[in-house]
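As noted in the main text, all predictions were made from sequence alone. Below is one such record, for Brefeldin A-inhibited guanine nucleotide-exchange protein 1.
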Amino acid sequence: MSVSQTLGGASRCGWVLGPSLDKIIKNVAWRKHSHLVSVCKSTLDKFESLVDASDPTSCSPLYGLSSSDGELLLQPLIMAVESGSPKVLEPALDCAFRLFSFGLIRGCEIKDNSSIIFRLIDSVCKCAALGDDAIELAVLKVLLSAVRSPCIYISGDCLVYIVKSCYNIYLGGHSGTVQICAKSVLAQMMIIVFTRVEQNSMLVDFKNVSVSELLEFADRNLNEGSSIHFAQNFINEIVESKDSPPDVKLSLDLQNGCNCLEEKADEGHGKSVDEAADLSGYSQIREDGFMLYKNLCKLSMKLSSQENPDDQILLRGKILSLELLNVIMGNAGPIWRTNERQEYDVSSEYLMCSSLTRFLSAVKQYLCLSLLKNSGLSVMTVFQLLCAILWNLLSKFRSGLKSEIGIFFPMLILRVLENVLQPSFLQKMTVLSLLEKISHDSQIIVDTFVNYDCDVEAPNIFERSPPGSITSLSPAQDMTFRHESVKCLVRIIKSMGSWMDQQLKVGELSPSKFSDNENLTETPTYPIDDTNIVDYELHSEANSEFSNAASLEQRRAYKLEIQKGVALFNRKPSKGIEFLISTKKVGSS
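Prediction:
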């Protein structure tokens, strides 16, 4: 047995805590921190008599030890973190990181200061205020390892506290490297939390955040030499940390954890566990994900005060929130796309929305409001992030957000393409980049035409999407814009052609169904009874039913004539009314 292991006795936790406490004793100023030295020494003596229990209790904060022993042995670590001495903090924070990474710190639900684990996390968060780069990086390591660990469930206020602490490190970091690492840690936390939300489980596989992709829109100027490479290695080291003392299990006894949550659901609704799960989605994992998502949306909506309209810290916090929301939306899975429905619990007379619908409702209620409030800002980074989020909504959520997309697409995209308020060259190029992404998915193009251009009550999005001209550009910018515009148009046409070829190959489309309709407004049309119109939603499955192709042509022609009548009415009401009556769009009485 090595010397480092003998310092902590025979227990697994002692193998990690023992050498760290010994290093703390050697580094600390004995006169100033005599009590800390005394507690560390008594703890080392305590380890000599401890061995791992054959049947470890799930209630203990330290694996293999009793609850009382676990709390007692974590006290010197908390005291060391609270000491404020950099020489003491270095081994203390490293010890906390290893305890979380190795799965030696355990807990069913850590959400308030009644838990000693919360007190440990609280002390770690507070020491970041010292402003030392090395300490801030060590704090980020501990916090991410705590959120990552499947052996401890960080919930409620504790989770929010951790996220806010990382925010503060990002906003107050003195070096670009620390700021990039803080942003990367936050993004990785979002991936971990919402991957668990998707699967409703702590034991999930998740991907590592790409730091270079994360910095696509903001903070490129923070790159100090190899900061991006350093931050990527920093994240990988924490997420992939698998070294541990022999025989340490890193898996959580989820059965005990689930029982704790089930008991709470049972108490809250007076129902059985199964009924509570079906009706309210009692899962604390999903409840915490919903709360975190809502808070991020609210942070992204904060506006500068009249006294300080150029508040750069608030703006950076807003941009960071939008970046994290973009990460969440970019990795969103099926749970976010569940159509909204409500279930009624007769016995408790309580109307509850299924937990699986709350996330789509959150997108409508909070994210869309954030897009609306931020759309008027003239900050280029904000505009780019709004376009990136809109792309995620369009590519993943269009089946449930038809009306919302019908508002935001014209507000963000068409307004730029149609030169409203003289958009800048960068705004134009950002929109072209979004259209390029759309052109790679032919189904989005078809869905857009069917659900907007063929819907009388929706705006014409497909018709207005091709890029137009732009004024006030330098010759080089004008050449670049024209070149990219033509490329974008070509890609859209090719994508539509590929889609047609694909449908013809699988035999779902008959060429006879498509006659020459170059001018739909001149084709004889008639008012269409709403009961005979297929209610097309933004579903790729719906648009594969080409038996309704004729109905689509009628709907498009009907809308064009309505628009023509409205345009005539706006110029000369009598002519507009005469046209609408002649085409049977309105009655003659």
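Strands lie at 107-110, 152-154, 342-345, 350-353. Confidence is low (pLDDT under 50) at residues 1-5, 243-282, 340-353, 509-547. These features were considered when defining construct boundaries for the mutagenesis experiments described in Section 2.9.
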